Amino acid sequence: MKIEFGDGGIVIDAALIAPLLKIEPADVPGLMREGAITSLCETGIGEDAGEYRLSFFYLGRRVRLKVNASGEVLRRSIVDYGDIPLPTAMHRPGG
To answer: For residues 8-24, b (16+ Cβ closer than 10 Å) or e, as one string?
Structure first.
């Protein structure tokens, strides 16, 4: 499953991030519209030029995907704080 980069922004299939956030894919659009799922995109520089880090936050989870310019996922990571809300610093670039 790839991620698409276009003039209108980044398009990612909900089926890619939903299981990582422990929710159903059908719930992703509504939760994003409500602001319950938030996201952050960082552009790589230096040795990471041409790559992107996409972070998704929901309740006590942060899902991070490192992708190349073709939209292929190179790496993924999950931080799960369980019932504890994520620290605010984790919602910032580099956090």
So the answer is: eeeebebebbbebbebe
The domains of the chain are located at: 3-90
The answer to whether the beta carbons of residues 95 and 88 sit under 8 Å apart is no
Question: Under CATH, to which class is 3-90 assigned?
Answer: alpha beta
Q: Point out which residues pair with 78 in neighbouring strands.
A: 63
Instruction: Based on DSSP, count helices (H) and strands (E) in the chain, helices before strands.
Output: 2, 6
pLDDT at 3 over 70: yes
pLDDT score at 92: 62
Q: For residue range 42-71, what is the model confidence (pLDDT) as tens digits?
A: 999 999 999 999 999 999 999 999 999 999
